[in-house]
Amino acid sequence: LLLGCELTASTKSYTFQVDEEDNFDHILALSVVCLTDGAKDECNVVEVVGRNHENQEIAVPVANLKLSCQPLLSLDNFKLQPPVTFRLAAGSGPVHLAGWHRIMHREDVSFEEDDDFSEEDEEDLPPIMPAKK
């Protein structure tokens, strides 16, 4: 599924959420962030706000766009796990974000210990020696 949103001075954030109770895994991939018609020649900083492994909110800038020097940034399908908020931290936009949303059926897979691999099968690696001067 394609995703698109626009951040402006009046709409500074957009939150992408999914139903966490469904039986699917969701991946959101951000492809392009670009200034659109009507943008001023000012720095427009776009942040991604999400949660880390300790469930603390974190904000990370992913784009700093300016009409005269960098109006477009390709993020090469930067993958995020919903829920995630895109926020215009500086500037007035408009900034358009485009990407895709992938939905995968969650399989009920049990992670039992694999009998084909054990610690006994690991090869002994030689110790790391200090570099010769």
Verbal overview:
- By secondary structure, the chain is mainly beta.
- The chain has one domain (2-105): Nucleoplasmin core domain (Jelly Rolls).
- It contains no helices and eight strands.
Q: Nutshell version of this structure?
A:
The protein is an all-beta fold and 133 residues long. It is built from no helices and eight strands. Strands 1-8-3-6 form a four-stranded antiparallel β-sheet, with no helix packed on it.
What brief labels describe this structure?
extended, Jelly Rolls, 4-stranded antiparallel sheet, mainly beta, 133 residues
Q: What is the mean predicted local confidence, pLDDT?
A: 81
Largest sheet: 4 strands, antiparallel
What's the total count of β strands? 8
Low-confidence stretches: 108-122
The termini sit apart by 57 Å
The ordered H/E elements are EEEEEEEE
The portion of residues forming beta strands comes to over 45%
CATH domain class name: Mainly Beta
Number of helices: 0
- Fraction of residues in helix: under 10%
Question: What is the domain tally?
Answer: 1
**The CATH superfamily title:** Nucleoplasmin core domain
